[in-house]
Amino acid sequence: MINRFTMFKVFLNSFFIQSAWSFEKMQGLGFASAIAPAINYIYKDRDRAAAALKRHMVFYNAHPYMASPILGAVIRMEEDVRDGKLDAGSIASFKESLIGPYGAIGDTFFWGSVRPIASILGVLTA
Description:
Elements: H1 4-14, H2 28-42, H3 46-56, H4 67-83, H5 89-125
């Protein structure tokens, strides 16, 4: 099980998922850099850690504010892969299946609800 300090580092890194965009992988590099502290904690072997990070440097494009639940679930799945309880390919299919729903939930909530309410509060305050 991962310690709290490592999870806190993953949480802080999750704020920078949007910092490295590319047209090929969208937020894939940001996701890999966010999960890197946990990967380094889970896999003590450098080769296995590199393979796991390479596994996460694929296409990823969900709402960036909704990435934390996906990060937590993927970290747990990586622990299961390390223990031999899960196949590494299932992590990719899990991430792919959550990209659309979490993107839609995040866009609807933040751009459809929070942003207009914040705008109204800003106008009323001014």
